[in-house]
Amino acid sequence: MSAGPRDGVVDADLRTWAIPNLWVVDGSVLPTQGAANPALTIMALAARAADGMLAGQRSGLAAGADRENRCDAR
């Protein structure tokens, strides 16, 4: 996860910087493997991503509508 496309593959909402409407919701977004089983962390990330998708749908946001501003804010 990163604040901008030059520093990582996904943003804080787990959406990829390169492809609109592509979310990566698995262990590959974690930078390192912890000492414990990451299953609960991955489930929490998936729930957060799902909440974000629903919120965007309910508010009528177009795909990637605010992403341009976040990319330039860096």
Task: List its salient traits.
flat; 2 helices; about 70 residues
Report on the architecture of this protein:
This protein is mainly α and 74 residues long. It is 38% helix and 0% strand. The protein is flat and about 40 Å long. The model has no long low-confidence stretch (mean pLDDT 80).
Summarize the SSE layout with pairings.
Blueprint: H1 39-59, H2 67-73
Strand content: under 5%
**Shape annotation:** flat
Question: Pairing-aware structural class of the strands and helices?
Answer: mainly alpha
Spans where pLDDT lies below 50 across 5 or more residues: none
- Give the N-terminus to C-terminus distance in angstroms: 14 Å
Order of helices and strands: HH
- Compute the number of strand runs: 0
Task: Determine the fraction of residues in helical runs and give it as a percent range.
Answer: 25-40%
Mean pLDDT: 80
Radius of gyration: 13 Å
Short description:
This protein has 74 residues and is mainly alpha-helical.
